[in-house]
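Aim 2 progress. For Receptor-like protein kinase FERONIA, the working sequence is reproduced below.
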Amino acid sequence: MHLSPVSLALLFLCFVTFIFATNNPTPSTGDVSINCGSNGASTAHDGREWLGDVQPKFSSSVQMEGSSTTSSVIHKLISSDDSVPHKTARLSRSRFSYAFQVNPGQKILRLHFNPAQYKGFKSFKDLFSVEVGPFTLLSNFSASLFANALGVNSFVKEFGINIEEYQQYLNIIFSPENSQSLDTYAFINGIEIMSVPASLSYYYSGGIGVQVVGKSPFYVDSSTALEIIHRLNIKQDSVSSTANNIGNMFGIWESGPNRKAREIKNITWKVPVDVGFKYLVRLHFSEIGFKMAEIGGLIYKVHINEIIVNTNINIVTEKDDESSMPWYRDYIVIMKGHKQEGKRELLICLESNDEFMDGQGPLKGFEIMKLSNPDNSLSSPHPLPPARDSSHWIIKNLVKVLGWRNIIATLTIIGLALVNISIYALLQIWEASRTKEENKPSAKAERLCRQFSLAEMQLATRNFSDAHLIGKGGFGKVYKGLIDNGRETVAIKRQKSNSKQGAREFLTEIETLTELRHVNLVSLIGYCNEHGEMILVYEYMASGTLGDHLYKLARKSENGSSLTWKQRLNICIGAGRGLDYLHTGHPLIHRDVKASNILLDENFIAKVSDFGLAKHLSRSRLESHISTKVKGTFGYLDPNYLMTGKLTKSSDTYAFGVVLLEVLSGRPALDPSFPVYEQNLPKWARENISKGKADQIVAPNLRSEISEIA
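Predicted structure tokens for this construct:
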């Protein structure tokens, strides 16, 4: 059947309307404090009420899934001030989750842990991950090891999460990690969810973004998760109004010691943070400090990691209007390095030539927040235990029994240490060989797919020269290369080699693409996995990505994208055929459909690419779903998948609907440069459609062309 351009345009708009003209119920509940493992209501020492999760009265606003049990702490004294929420816990050796019905907006999520002994669960056997939507907050996490390293009995991990308008629930998933020991488990003592006022939000919806120390501005938008690392009041009896607001809400500000004026003149704070992440540093300024700077009575400099970020001149020239108080400034600090390096100190220094009046300096306090990385992860290696606790428990017990003066005991300790080192070295060798074997494709894939040597890849890209770089992202970098003595041009994707998740996606893509053959799917030519490298070689797509043409290249042109309406329709039809082939010919869910994963050849033929997140469905359950970790790209995630973790073919259909909207509007799925109500493209489009203003979705440079066709 042949369809005219007019029919295609009408079908296009109907399809978009069908996908996006949905109404979500508005959540009726807000903040909540859960005393996990308890029944009924409890009152903490600060007067706040906590609700139990055993037969909860608020079952309409919170749901629990998975098998779990509850227990009270045994063999451990807990003070009455600390009993809520640390006296009881919810535990499980299998995955369990909470789903809270909350209002949209930014939330502070606090997870309370008391790694004590619980009935039926051994100490130091807790090892688990915590996920919220697409974010991994904790991974391979042991609360016991963490508390032992800090020298505390209990602790709180605190995070910042944004709830979009279309999200009905905040899902928190606890998953024990796989281990040779079947005793590993996950647990939680308390959960707090608190709304953050818009005036104190850590996210930026427009403007110039957050200043990166020593570099260009950076946007912290609602697609980022935060972990609150440190908050400090510099002066106990004079907390900034900002700090008071947050402190009254959460009670989590650490107070610094009172200092004399001469001590405050030059002071440096050192905060250990994980490397390999960006950090949002919020400096809170005092009103009296501002007034002193305004009249020239205060000269100071604030350094972050030895770079000046603020002075008495800045505080006056950059001051907001009076109604904008409380007054603060945000900065992004990049702590480069591999996660395995552990922690490094983030330095904040206040320097002045003046003694401050009554010890009142320009700074009232500061906050440090870790930002999620491109993998949507906040997890980091376990901290090392203090020096006094770093020995193996056997060695410590021997020392206690025999004493250091006993020569035999000393020799025994040395022998055990050597055995420990030898076993560790052998385990490392075994793990390396096992990892190498696991990263090897199947025999079928090896037979159907060409294997390149690392030397061939280096030759093709001139040793991965930046001159050949054509793209990069969280996965790694893409280069344009020449193989077979320069006869064939290819695209070479070099993935990051230090990621287990990357290794899984590398193998998934090889296994998937060797089985798929379609004109609208990108072709895999071969791969290289020598010397820890994970490199994929694809056919070269001369016209780049659909996303490039829709909004990246279009921004450089006053007239917008050069793609005509007819070209856009053909691209959408081609990409749709590719997805249909995946869903019907091969029961496969792509899981990351987006404009940047639709490539265009020299004739602008669309080809779907990047199958690293793909999931197979068995033919016997094509209409069913897969329960899996939420993966994909913000803005394209199906709300149902985001809320439930249940992946279906409709998840791809929703994402493709977002792509269709991008094609029609020439805008990205999420754009922080627009006003808040227009940043989310699906939401903005749905509102226009419901108001009968579907024409407002169409890019201005397309309206006349579509009118002519109609």
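The first strand starts at residue 32 and ends at 39. This observation will guide construct design in the next reporting period.
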